[in-house]
Amino acid sequence: MGQTLGCVQVDQSTVAMKEQFGKFDNVLEPGCHCLPWCIGYQLAGSLSLRVQQLDVRCETKTKDNVFVTVVASIQYRALAEKAADAFYKLSNTKEQIQAYVFDVIRASVPKLDLDSTFEQKNDIAKAVEDELEKAMSAYGYEIVQTLIVDIEPDAQVKRAMNEINAAARLRVAATEKAEAEKILQIKRAEGEAESKYLSGLGIARQRQAIVDGLRDSVLAFSENVPGTSAKDVMDMVLVTQYFDTMKEIGASSKSSAVFIPHGPGAVKDIATQIREGLLQAESVSH
């Protein structure tokens, strides 16, 4: 806005107050205007019609006695049709708005506990906006929007809240870990039981196969060699297996020293023990 030789220029989104001899005369719109100063006309000042923002920090206490700092962001603008009221009725618009914000927040937050304050911040913003709209409209201002942009508890309270949250999460994690370990142990036990069951079946089938093979060998040898009894054939088979076992033990590079009785009498005793064990296994399997 400029003034030269009685002509003034009002910028866009701005209005100017025209006075004559100190009395309000008219609101000047954006553009060029003639103000003959010789007859008492002058500009008292200008007023921006743009949307402005004011951030207000208000410290208050919640219902559960926790001090918090509430940060409210107020967006407002002067109304062109009430420009004279906005210019002349308020000496400091920002301080006036701040006073109303303090009043509403300090009346609303003490009714809520800390958690509810976070949950109902939109309700707090709506209460601030309604109160400001009702109060500031009389002064020619419009409240465009009110936001509660932050709620800051005391540092010790924030630390305590974080510790509570961390402890709860650790408790859940420990429960889940214990449940996982329980499932692993159950599955491991089930696997071991199934393994032992299948191993038992394998051993039983192996013994049955040995018994069947020996029986077939005894019968075939008795038929092909006349005059031999089943006992003679069994003794010969057992002695042959005994010597095969001795050969394998001696040929193994990783075998330890094994002391067993050896001789005709010892071989006879071993044959008798093996034969009795196989006969008992055969009787049990049948």
UniProtKB/TrEMBL annotation:
Domain Band as annotated: residue spans: 5-165
Xref: InterPro entries: Band7/mec-2_domain, Band_7, Band_7/SPFH_dom_sf
One Pfam family in the UniProt entry: Band_7
SUPFAM superfamilies per record: Band 7/SPFH domain (SSF117892)
Cited CDD domains: SPFH_like_u4
Family annotation (PANTHER family): HYPERSENSITIVE-INDUCED RESPONSE PROTEIN 2, STOMATIN-LIKE PROTEIN 2, MITOCHONDRIAL
Protein name, entry field: Band 7 domain-containing protein
Organism of this sequence: Rehmannia glutinosa
